[in-house]
Write a structure and sequence with these properties.
The complex is a heterodimer. By secondary structure, chain A is mostly beta strands. Chain A has strands spanning 4-7, 10-13, 19-25, 31-37, 43-51, 54-57, 64-66, 76-78, 87-94, 102-103, 107-111. In chain A, the strands form two sheets. In chain A, strands 2, 4, 5, 6, 9, 10 and 11 form a seven-stranded mixed β-sheet that branches. In chain A, strands 1-3-8-7 form a four-stranded antiparallel β-sheet, with no helix packed on it. In chain A, strand 9 and strand 10 (102-103) form a beta hairpin. Chain A is globular. Chain B is mainly β. Chain B is built from no helices and ten strands. In chain B, strand 6 and strand 7 form a beta hairpin. The radius of gyration of chain B is 14 Å and the shape is globular. The chains are: A mainly beta, B mainly beta.
Chain lengths: 112, 113
């Protein structure tokens, strides 16, 4: 069954702790993306990666970090420097040459 | 720039009616547009897309219209069903530069049975 998986679906952390969100795809897509969604708002781009071992900052990269060591994986770390980390995080991927992105189911992170 | 609002505009329609959801975009260089549907607590699902060399594209029960002159995009849903209730987002991108999507703030569609 092909697709994008994000785990876990719900994640709870204490303030001051780093947390890593998982995103895996078996679609053989080259590009992967991380977005953040706050209640009643659209998606905002955090980081994206067009190819393995390379990634670029999006519009709201401060307080986040990523890695792209494997084509199928693009984990996002929410660091303690992120001032408002509580949000719904969405991972997406796209095939090379295509601008159409497919989304995973999302991870809802709550930091207290 | 991105138009982000705290309160989603809501469109309420009766089951069986046609729905029209509108979106204004800001980047005149955008050449590819996508409509996504997002149900509560889930990731966005692709509905339909259109390139800037077209002004209309039809899918199953859905039609997207693009007016580049006024930078306006619309999604028409025919014979709206309760399962169409969701938040709908338009997204734009350009084939040059960053090639990442910029999303609108979304419209909530409520279908009354």
């Amino acid at each position: 069954d092909g697709g994008i998986t994000q785990s876990p679906k719900y994640l709870f952390r204490k303030e001051g702790q780093n947390v890593t969100l998982s995103c895996e795809q078996n679609l053989n897509h080259d590009a992967m993306y991380w977005y953040r969604q706050d209640p009643g708002q659209g998606l905002r781009l955090i980081y994206y990666s067009q190819i393995v071992n390379d990634f670029q900052k999006g519009d709201i990269a401060e307080g986040y970090s990523v890695s792209r060591e494997k084509k199928e994986s693009f984990p996002l770390t929410v660091t303690s420097a992120q001032k408002n980390p509580t949000a719904f995080y969405l991972c997406a991927s796209s095939i090379e040459g295509s601008q159409l992105q497919y989304f995973g189911p999302g991870t809802r992170l709550t930091v207290t | 720039g991105e138009n982000v609002g705290l309160h989603l505009p809501t469109l309420s329609v009766q089951e069986g009616d046609n729905s029209i959801i509108n979106c204004a975009y800001s980047n005149s260089a955008s050449d590819y547009f996508i409509w996504y549907k997002q149900e509560s607590g889930k990731g966005p699902q692709f509905i339909i897309d259109i390139r800037s060399n077209m002004d209309k594209r039809q899918g199953q029960r859905v039609t997207v219209l693009l007016n580049k002159t006024v930078k306006h995009l619309s999604l028409q849903i025919a014979a709206t069903q309760p399962g169409d209730s969701a938040v709908y987002f338009c997204a734009e991108t350009s084939d040059t530069g960053r090639r990442a999507l910029t999303f609108g703030s979304g419209t909530r569609l409520q279908v009354q049975p």
